[in-house]
Design a protein that fits this description.
InterPro entries: Metallo-B-lactamas (IPR001279), RibonucZ/Hydroxyglut_hydro (IPR036866), UPF0173 (IPR022877), UPF0173_UPF0282_UlaG_hydrolase (IPR050114). Pfam families: Lactamase_B_2 (PF12706). This is UPF0173 metal-dependent hydrolase HHL22_20145. The structure is a single chain. The protein has 6 helices and 14 strands. It starts with a strand and ends with a strand. The protein has a 7-stranded mixed sheet, with helices on one face. A 7-stranded mixed sheet has the order 7-8-9-10-11-12-13, covered by helices on one side. Strand 7 (94-97) and strand 8 (100-106) form a beta hairpin. The protein is globular. It has helices at 52-55, 58-65, 73-80, 148-153, 171-181, 201-210; strands spanning 2-5, 11-15, 18-22, 44-46, 68-72, 86-89, 94-97, 100-106, 123-129, 134-137, 158-162, 185-189, 214-216, 223-225. The chain has a single domain (2-218), classed as Ribonuclease Z/Hydroxyacylglutathione hydrolase-like (Metallo-beta-lactamase, Chain A, 4-Layer Sandwich), CATH 3.60.15. By secondary structure, it is an alpha/beta fold.
């Protein structure tokens, strides 16, 4: 599979030719000014929660591409009422999609839509692909014992974890989370976008290396094979 980073927590995974976009927030991110939002294609969009820095470009991309979305029931109802084609799920639920299984797992974080509408609870996703890869998209979680359940239920190839601190885990908590979910290959997200989230890249990677983890900090627009 291929993974492209569009900044903040927005990734595009291409799995067996199916394009899966996570938490589309690009046009409002000053670091992603060189990304052409109108060139991003998606077949499915996964929304971890309703905050503007995770759904900011959802409506425009979903309208243009016709992508189907997956979100917690409250967010699915909100966008469904606007005419978007969605699947509502909830914590613990598994959804079968053409590229594999999406297991909705707990994320310790708040959630509301940009207009203040209640957004249910935040989620993360464990994706078990038909290609044979299993990975975890954490969303905006804090460090919580619920993460230990992931290791008990899944064998991860890699994990996408927030490391920017302030609103989510910082690198130290993320490395504990990596142990708890059973991942040694990590991709950082939710960092550098705004002043409170700016991190020292070298220090974060050194801390990860000391903990026996391989932390990748992708460039915006970079695509990697996983």
């Amino acid at each position: 599979m291929q993974l492209t980073y569009f900044g903040h927590s927005c990734f595009l995974a291409t799995i067996d030719g199916v394009r899966v976009l996570f938490d589309p927030f690009i046009s409002g991110n000053p670091l992603a000014k060189d990304v052409n939002v109108n060139a991003i294609e998606a077949d499915f969009i996964l929304l971890s929660h309703g905050h503007g820095d995770h759904v900011g470009d959802f409506e425009s991309i979903a309208t243009r591409t016709g992508a189907k979305f997956l979100a917690i029931a409250e967010i699915a109802g909100y966008y469904g009422a606007k005419g978007f084609d969605g699947i509502g799920a909830n914590l613990g639920g598994k959804v079968e999609l053409p590229f594999g299984t999406v297991h909705c797992v707990a994320a310790a974080h708040s959630s509301s839509l940009p207009d203040g509408t209640y957004g249910g609870v935040a989620m993360g996703f464990v994706i078990k692909t038909k290609e044979g890869k299993t990975f975890y998209f954490a969303g905006d979680t804090a460090l919580t014992y619920d993460l230990k359940l992931i290791k008990e239920r899944h064998q991860l190839d890699f994990a996408l974890l927030p490391i920017g601190d302030h609103y989510t885990m910082g690198i130290s908590d993320a490395l504990v989370a990596a142990d708890w979910v059973g991942a040694t290959e990590l991709i950082g997200m939710h960092y550098d976008t705004f002043p409170p989230l700016v991190i020292d890249h070298a220090a974060a990677q050194a801390e990860a290396q000391a903990a026996g983890k391989n932390l990748r900090l992708l460039r915006i627009g970079e695509t990697v094979e996983l």
